[in-house]
Amino acid sequence: MTVYNPPIRDTRFVLEELLESRSLTLPAFTETTPDLVEAVLEEAGRLASQVWAPLNQIGDRQGCRLEGCEVQTPQGFAEAYQAFVAGGWNGIGCSAELGGQGLPEVVASAVQEYWHAANMALALCPMLTAGAIEALSHHGDDALRSRYLEKLVEGGWTGTMNLTEPQAGSDLSQVRTKAVAEGDHFRLTGQKIFITWGEHDCAENILHLVLARTPDAAEGNKGISLFLVPKFLVDEDGNLGERNDVVCTSLEHKLGIHGSPTCTLSFGDREGAIGYLVGEPGRGLNHMFTMMNEARHKVGIQAIGVAERAYQQAVAYAAERVQGRVPQARGGGPATLVQHLEVRRTLLSMRSRIEALRALALFTAGETDRARQAEDGIAREQAEMRVDLLTPIVKGFSTEQVVEIASLGIQVHGGMGYVEETGAAQLLRDARITTIYEGTTGMQALDLAGRKLLRDSGTALAEIIDEVEATSSELEASTTLATLGQALRAGAADLRRGMALVLEQGRHPDQGPDAIQAFATPFLYLTGHVLCAWLMGRSALKAQMALHDTPPDSAFYRMKLSSADFALRHWLPLGRAQLAVIEAGVSTLGELDSEAL
Amino acid sequence: MKILVAVKRVIDYNVKIRVKPDHSDVDLSNVKMAMNPFCEIAVEEAVRLKEKGVATEVVAVTVGPKAAQEQLRTALALGADRAIHVDTSAETDARVESLGAAKALAKVVEAEQPDLVILGKQAIDSDNNQTGQMLAALTGRPQGTFASDISVEAEGDEKRLKVTREIDGGLQTLSLALPAIVTTDLRLNEPRYAKLPDIMKAKKKPLDVKTPEELGVEVATRFTLVKIEPPAERQGGVKVGSVDELVDKLKNEAKVL
Question: Residue A500: is its pLDDT beyond 70?
């Protein structure tokens, strides 16, 4: 696997030029200056590329081993994780009162991309901890918060999310794990599966957040509560005590992310695992879902990181591998792959999409900053609506794209890409889970089309489409970018039409909103394409403006114009084709009997 | 004990060096810059001495353009307490040569009176390996160059600096009277990564800016850069048919036997 170079220049373009450092103007971030952000990106990039990235292939080859109830992670993972903790990176986005660094979400997200690109399997560990921090800080009582939060924020202890059971996957109402009250705590018994980083040797304690039912609880979702179950019990002074009755009984053999231990956890094989109620009884699912938006955004960021690595790997190979002749000169000298137009097209297709997805993900993170920190209540509310709307797109679209991008990465390598040694195949295998966990693409599409759109009758999306059209007009006013403006305008019109069809279906008197399932995924793709094209259109305007002053790095801006041109004229048309699928409506599927398949 | 550490902004060691088409200089436009790796070792050593309780204050200094403040911020993030920037932005020639840097540093030494000055043994851009030695001469302080180990030892009431130097034949150990000048070799230590909280704190640490004029020194370069040429590109190899042919080629073509 080749070295990883954090794409700091592009990150900075998105943060400073495309998003105009808007998050930094919020009152909470007055001390965060662009040069500080740059130093943060540089240092995170150094640790990611020098310490984490070289372990990526080792992690894939060695995988994790279960010895008794202990999990051994791949060689070097524990040290690399400890270096991350010692560097204070775990608390990057957490507020100062929790012991974090209180940097804007947009910066925290940008940095997360680097960890995932360097080593997705390892980066999952702090990603899960971040979810536990969210859950505990929002819903835990003071006693729980003061005993556990500091160590979680620092990263000395890690967190897990225990939702899934063999019979309860996407449908969590089926959860059966039991929690019986005993004094000031509960005793838990049951089995959880697919627990990411559920047991490992990288930190001294693990805090499991577990969905379970109390004996008298109602059936279904309303009977589920959230519990904190530490691997080692913690006394009042924060010292580690007895080993709790929760053990890892097996590890999954997976397609990818071999360095990330995916555990089956057994609670209460002996006297019952001690757990503490987090939040209100019966509100466990709600409490879990408060952090779902963020977790989904993080998976989108993760996908972008892996896609970037696949692109860098492909470019490096294409620049070295000699095959065929220079096409312009018949009988001319031998050519590297990158000198062939078709290979360049493939590479640009990868790069253009990554830049677009990064822009969309960081745009959404910027809206999260506004939703939390804007002074004006209406601005906060508007930003909140946008985050709700955009999150399933960032998650669903980025992850579907990374599967294609990593696959193209293999394609550029030819047969060598199918051979594990090059490392190209690992990226596809690793990336494949991202369309599944934290809610499948289908679930994201239903969330977008079935819930978020119907909830406000498309108000939030319609506002964004207005902005897309405004960008179209700006592009059309430029002689060199006018064709991009026309392409974007057509895309915006398609999205408006697609949105109208979804809303119409939602109000359908007989079929009802459930029938939206027939074209929710095509609608998610259409939205993703148009919004990505929009941000690349805006990037083109910024790049063109920058080029007026002939900056020293004009090559970067010219490349940005190429990426934008590709996104709007080569990639957007594929997305626009989704409108035809939406227009086909429910008839094909509505008449299809499930038993016929 | 106060330690002064000199750092230099140079082209990042990962960057493939390009020469300007007219051979007038190395092309630095849009190139990643970083702290000279030998200077990183110098900062690390100073910070370690502070962590051990040997040093009480670490001051980082650089002589260079405005952008070199980035490297001072890095030094502050790594643990230096404050920084001094000798700003050469107003100079007609942006290049600062060893003697200019040494003179400016001598003025800073005069003002700060550090017990120990640590510098990198050389910078990876010009590879001169001069500044530390010149500074020692200008300040009249003893020098221990190419240090692979240093420790402060008490001799009666006097503190002395034990410096292990990497020399051609092996290791040489010197005992220097303080105040002294030390230049670092690669094996002195392995520099740490800056921590996020320290990067944030670095912004609030004091950074003084002084011009060469204020210090009363002339840093202008005395050399004329005539030409920069990249190393010759490697020629393609040939396959030899036999050992005899190889020996013949080594003798008569390569002339190495």
Answer: yes
pLDDT averaged over chain B? Answer: 93
Q: Is A46's CB within 8 Å of B203's CB? A: no
**Alpha carbons A460 and A452: distance in angstroms, whole number:** 9
Cα separation, B108 vs B61, whole angstroms:
8
* CATH number of the structural domain spanning residue B120: 3.40.50.620
pTM (2 d.p.): 0.92
d(CA A3, nearest CA chain B) in Å: 11
The residue count for chain A: 597
Is the Cβ pair A51, B193 closer than 8 Å? Answer: yes
Residue B232 reports pLDDT greater than 90: no
CA-based nearest residue in chain A for residue B67 = A35
Q: Whole-number mean pLDDT of chain A?
A: 95
SS3 content of chain A, % helix, strand, coil (to 5): 60, 15, 25
Give the tens place of pLDDT for each residue, A287-336: 988 778 889 999 999 999 999 999 999 999 999 998 888 766 666 678 89
Quickly tell me which residue has 């150094």 as its tokens.
A46
Q: What is the identity of the amino acid at A299?
A: V
- Evaluate if residue A591 carries a pLDDT over 80: no
Rounded-to-integer distance, Cα A578 and Cα A498, Å: 9
Q: Is residue B257 part of a domain?
A: no
| β-pairing verdict for B9-11 and A70-72 | unpaired
Question: Residue B230 domain-assigned?
Answer: yes
- Complex ipTM, two decimals? 0.88
Instruction: Show the domain range for B216.
Output: 2-252
Output DSSP code: residue A268: -
Given a cut of 70, whether residue A246 has pLDDT beyond it is yes
User: What pLDDT, on a 0 to 100 scale, did the predictor assign at position A207?
Assistant: 98
Share of chain B above pLDDT 70, in %: 99
Specify the number of domains making up chain B.
Answer: 1
Q: Which residues face B11 on adjacent strands?
A: B33
CA distance B73 to B104: 20
- In terms of Cα–Cα distance, which of A137, A405, A501, A427 is closest to A255? A427
Q: Per the CB < 8 Å rule, is A556 touching B30?
A: yes
Distance (Å, rounded) from C-alpha A292 to C-alpha A222? 18
The answer to whether A367 is a known catalytic residue is no
Burial status of residue B65 (CB atoms within 10 A of its CB: 0-12, 13-18, 19 or more):
middle
